Amino acid sequence: MSKNDFILEARDIHKSYRMGMAQVQVLKGVNAGIKRGEFAAIVGASGSGKSTLLHILGALDSVDKGAVRFEGRELGKMSGGELNRYRNSTVGFVFQFYHLLDELSVLENVILPAMVPAGIMRWLSIRDGVMKRGRDLLEAVGLGERAVHKPYQLSGGERQRAAIARALVNEPRMLLADEPTGNLDSATGNGILELLEKLNHAGQTIIMVTHDERVAARAGRVITLADGRIK
């Protein structure tokens, strides 16, 4: 695989956090590349830095040293507005605990990432198209009949499917999933993995963090982190 094949690259990534009086180095010179259309899993023990790396790739966190480049552009050199657009449109996030808003319907949760940055006038012009995409996504993830329900009325697996639909509403170039099956039983988690595989087969680039090697084995490539470095 040549360097030009990568849609996302991390080069010599270092990251540390202050915990009490101690400075803990979480990432210690990580180098990784993600190919367009790839399904990659990042695995490692608790504290190995895998979620930190995912958050850095998604611009939810910044590096102390090194660089992350998306299609050759360094995230650290983007303006605040460019980074906001990267987080909102280029990347879709899926988390272990869903982060759905119980006061909104399932459909309203799904379309929220498209609604928030639009502004009133633009939202009025795109609303019908976004609502249709939201409904289509709910149909695609098997929740077409749950659009008007509230998240607390759904099962754990249904909530995660709704969260995946929300992550896809802005047609992101990459889907970043942090322990997407970690809060689910094995049968329900298997259904989520099948959905991710289906999305990947349709061309979606996916980076998934998991502590479970059996889950990671469903991805096309496994990246193993140990003691802040890639093995």
Description of the molecule:
The chain has a six-stranded mixed β-sheet, sandwiched between helices. A four-stranded antiparallel β-sheet has the order 2-1-4-5, covered by helices on one side. The longest helix is centred in the middle third of the chain and has 21 residues, at 120-140. It has 231 residues and is of the alpha/beta class. Strand 7, helix 6 and strand 8 (205-210) form a beta-alpha-beta unit. Helix 3 crosses helix 4, helix 3 packs parallel to helix 5 and helix 5 (156-168) runs parallel beside helix 6. It is globular, with a radius of gyration of 18 Å. The chain has seven helices and ten strands. The model has no long low-confidence stretch (mean pLDDT 92). Helices cover 36% and strands 28% of the residues.
